[in-house]
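# step 3/5: fold
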Amino acid sequence: MELAAEELKQNLANVRARIRAACERAGRDPSGVTLLAVSK
């Protein structure tokens, strides 16, 4: 179970980094972006 938690942390960090990079390219402030978790 610990591995899944570490994988989740790394995935979240990757998503946040991608959001930050996209905001830099678009000239937006990353604090204006809300990340929502969705499942089906």
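# step 4/5: annotate
The chain is about 60% helix and 0% strand.
# step 5/5: archive (pending)
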